[in-house]
Amino acid sequence: MSEPAHIQSRPPFWTSLADRYWKMLRRPTGRDGRIRHTVETVGQSHDLTPKQAGILRQLLRLDTIDVEEVMVTRSEIVAVPATASIQQLIDTGSQAGHSRLPVFGRDLDDIIGMIHMKDLLSSWGKSDGFQLSDITRPILTVAPSTPVTELLGQMQSERCHIAIVADEHGGTDGLVTIEDLLEEIVGEIEDEHDQTPPPDLVEITKGVYEVDGRYPLKEFEEQVGINLRTGRFEDVESIGGLVIAIAGEFPAEGLRLEHNSLELVPVDVSDRAVLRVQVLAKGHRAPG
Questions:
Q1: Burial class for 193, CB neighbours closer than 10 Å (0-12, 13-18, 19+)
Q2: What is the Cα gyration radius of the chain?
Q3: Residue 259 burial class via C-beta count within 10 angstroms: exposed 0-12, middle 13-18, buried 19 and up
Q4: Which domains does the chain have, with CATH numbers?
Q5: Which residues contact 94 (CB under 8 A, 6 or more apart)?
Q6: pLDDT per residue over 126-145, tens digit each?
Q7: Start-to-end Cα distance in the chain
Q8: What are the DSSP calls for 164-178, one per residue?
Q9: pTM higher than 0.90, yes or no?
């Protein structure tokens, strides 16, 4: 019986390069040049396209890059306090567009772990006995001088996608994700949050709006003249957070929800955030 087609069609260049490269990362190679030798050997035995050659050059360069060169600086870190409520956590994740968030104790220099949004959503409805510590996962901590290749190997072996970069006093210098590291190899990884965002709020026709999921709920209330933060929704901070709170779970695209004479429909949802919401006033319909 022949092998499945997707295995048969795998480009031999990438199979050889990936196998050899990750074997190198699993060893304590440091900067002794063995990774350089590996990718050079692979390159010599294959006809490379310009893109493949570019990725090879980036792989060679990785051996000289430290974590501090690719990290997000301290001022740009989005983190949550250990005392945060479920709704505050959902709002923060939705507004930032991150599926993983660091958790801090006293302040940002006291990082105690990280949460994954999928763990948080599975805890929805358990707010009475909810403890953030129940879903807090360990987080890697590395020095600014850690080589990128070393951190990649550590992330792979420990199955952790983010790391805190700590200074010599134990304070938080920055944060680095596995996406940051992979972008050093293949170039910038674009997603819906990297593209130029559409206007935050657009009135498509009278009484019909399309709103960025991160749009502040207080500002939207002022725009439409309706109080939406009532009852159990009084702590909700964004339109996307309101949609999740009303649904009681992470919603599917097209789900129609009603709240205070408005109909809210998530029209663009990723695996980690409500990106766009259509809001219709009572008695109004979207065009088309």
A1: middle
A2: 23
A3: middle
A4: 5-64 (no CATH), 68-186 (3.10.580.10), 201-281 (3.30.465.10)
A5: 213, 214, 238, 240, 241, 244, 273, 274
A6: 656 778 888 999 999 999 99
A7: 52
A8: EEE-TTS-EEEEEEH
A9: no
